[in-house]
Amino acid sequence: MTSAEPAEKLLSPVLSASWDDDRPWTLATYRRHGGYEGLQRALAMPPDDLIALVKDSGLRGRGGAGFPTGMKWQFIPQNDGKPHYLVVNADESEPGTCKDIPLLFANPHSLIEGMVIASYAIRCDHAFIYLRGEVVPVLRRLHAAVAEAYEAGYLGKNILGSGIDLDITVHAGAGAYICGEETALLDSLEGRRGQPRLRPPFPAIAGLYACPTVVNNVESIASVPPILARGKDWFKAMGTEKSAGFTLYSLSGHVTNPGQYEAPLGVTLRQLLDISGGIRAGHRLKFWTPGGSSTPMFTDEHLDVPLDYEGVGAAGSMLGTKALQVFDETTCVVRAVTRWTEFYAHESCGKCTPCREGTYWLVQLLKRIEAGQGAAGDLEKLLDIADNINGKSFCALGDGAASPIVSSLQHFREEYEQHITERRCPFDPAASTVWAGRGHVHESATEREVHA
Ligand SMILES: Cc1cc2nc3c(=O)[nH]c(=O)nc-3n(C[C@H](O)[C@H](O)[C@H](O)COP(=O)(O)O)c2cc1C
Ligand code: SF4
């Protein structure tokens, strides 16, 4: 692909193909687009062959880590006499990440069909959707779609005469980012406070109610029916060798036309900007995230990085959730990182010390730097705290919190220094009064004291 290619050649709408139809969320529309044909094929295959097919397709998890989906299903022990569970992670709370919610809103049956196929493969007769609770319209739509699927015989007893049973429970979470971490999600689903579990044992061995459990992202599961319907070779023909297929890229921020762009893995931000109207008029790109706020930020030097797992990794970041948050030259990087860090401090579940204490202290330091009250040595302190969080926390939320600190200092250290030496925010001089009025942070980062 070249950036000069027209949108219709660059994009590969599959999950989003029906979004512009009238009432795309209904079963009738879904069927008109070939919906539930993949399920018919799947039910005609032995479950192990189905797992092998998904494995061979090269589908990798779309929830952030890119773990091969078929391999995850294969880890479920067979003939162990225990119930098996499928849990779909629809918590979607990372700043910038906004693909699963629109997908569920526009096309809920793609998830339901994928869940029936996945449940058949892993021998599960009760599956769950853990949805972020704030999105009530999506919750209603999901409930309606599940009811439609029961009515049509795609759920319940003896699905399509196959002898297979499946019930789906839709669960609304209470809106905590940590409940997207798969083991915290399982605790929350079981009715406990959502905090990550120690691993091993992994969910495939002891997950929901201590039974073998597959936890997959919405988009991962929704990508399975088209693979069944059109074949693994069709899927592998898109994307790159190790990152096969199509995916949803969520373009947001200072762009002319933000939105969901479904394209083969390996497309570049330059190409996506070319077909989406570019950076907003009169401005230029300053920095961006390839996969949400937890992924190290990129700059305009990275416009041609292939947005697949390997390409983004080789360039020093992570593909994550493919949430492309774009910031132009009017954005203060210190302010943006401060806002993200406030989010991580708020969402830290408190289970482990490096993240609970570290995110708190990062916010204190960042706020005073942003307000022009920073001191010499603050940048080293920021890096030191980030280093004490990264890789030393109990779960990946901590690593995610450290990531914008480290990458923004790598690319924009001078801008941080400017805040300290000029004693003001160069983007918003008025901001310097905000923090001054509240006092200053005690120099020792071991005491939680803010002196007025
Ligand atoms: C703090 C945190 C939040 C997460 N939030 C989500 C989420 O909202 N949705 C999601 O699918 N995965 C999320 N993940 C990743 C999950 O733990 C898990 O890897 C994913 O659901 C696996 O699905 P996949 O293999 O289909 O990608 C989160 C991880 C962490 C550490
Ligand atoms: S890293 Fe943060 S969110 Fe994860 S367990 Fe520790 S305190 Fe909780």
UniProtKB/TrEMBL annotation:
Its biological purpose: NDH-1 shuttles electrons from NADH, via FMN and iron-sulfur (Fe-S) centers, to quinones in the respiratory chain.
Start and end residues of each NADH-ubiquinone oxidoreductase 51kDa subunit iron-sulphur binding domain: 334-379
Reaction catalysis annotation: a quinone + NADH + 5 H(+)(in) = a quinol + NAD(+) + 4 H(+)(out)
UniProt xrefs under Pfam families: Complex1_51K (PF01512), NADH_4Fe-4S (PF10589), SLBB (PF10531)
Family named by the database record: Belongs to the complex I 51 kDa subunit family.
EC number: 7.1.1.-
Protein known as: NADH-quinone oxidoreductase subunit F
Cofactor requirements of the protein: FMN; [4Fe-4S] cluster
Record-level Gene Ontology MF annotations: NADH dehydrogenase (quinone) (non-electrogenic) activity
Keywords attached to this entry: 4Fe-4S, Flavoprotein, FMN, Iron, Iron-sulfur, Metal-binding, NAD, Oxidoreductase, Quinone, Translocase
Bilayer-spanning residue ranges: none
Source species, domain of life: Bacteria
